[in-house]
Amino acid sequence: MSEQANNSNEDSAISVRAMDIITAILFLAFGLTVMIGSLKLGASWGSDGPEAGYFPFYISLIILLSSSATLYQAVIVDKKKKTESFVGREPLKQVMAVLLPAIVFVLGVQLIGIYVASALYIAIFMVWLGKYPIWKAIAVSVGVTVALYLMFEFWFQVPLPHGSWFNPLEFVGVN
Question: Where in the sequence is the domain holding 138, given as residue range(s)?
Answer without folding.
Answer: 89-172
